[in-house]
């Protein structure tokens, strides 16, 4: 019924790598162009899929650049300088759009989800006058501090989730690290800081164990010597957030008939 291409992007995230460390130094625009080039090459080598309806997808920060990648692809198709990919639209989950834009709707969102009371919401509306990012008076600053305090009590990913530690576990020492990467499986208690089973972040913990399992790496044909350890959130990747907003790209694509699904 459908095929999925899962791409580690930007370079040096997941199992992707660069022979030269400088190759990891990319940003919104450059990494999006790399994704476009990858897809062009993939469809060139697999032309039997060109007629299939094609959708781009991503979540969280990837949701910010997906409209940019879709724009690059649509422009390439119109100019006839790439394979005629049958791009139909895109889907993005919990996407970043524009930091100030997103932040400015937190108050309305928190009120809609019942996180803040009617009284707090009305005080914010009255004293902040639509600007919930840079308060211009003391009363606005105080009510926003209250809003931030209440929001901090819930999980960022979902209001109904239990607030849990975000698991990015690492083996305790080098001996365990080597054992972990070489054995077929390990006992879960060999990685510290794991969340409890009733936390949604427990899946992150399991993903770490599964992705670094030798059988998984062999099945994915990960080249030896390229990526020593899979990490879900690789903070040290030198990535530049150089696209201020994805709103113009959303507007450009949707007004031209491309389908869009934004979900939380």
Automatic annotation (TrEMBL):
It holds the Pfam family Peptidase_S10. It comes from the Eukaryota. SUPFAM superfamilies: alpha/beta-Hydrolases (SSF53474). One of its GO terms (biological process) is secondary metabolic process. GO terms for molecular function: acyltransferase activity, transferring groups other than amino-acyl groups; serine-type carboxypeptidase activity. Belongs to the peptidase S10 family. PANTHER family: CARBOXYPEPTIDASE, SERINE PROTEASE FAMILY S10 SERINE CARBOXYPEPTIDASE. This is Carboxypeptidase. It comes from Triticum turgidum subsp. durum (Durum wheat).
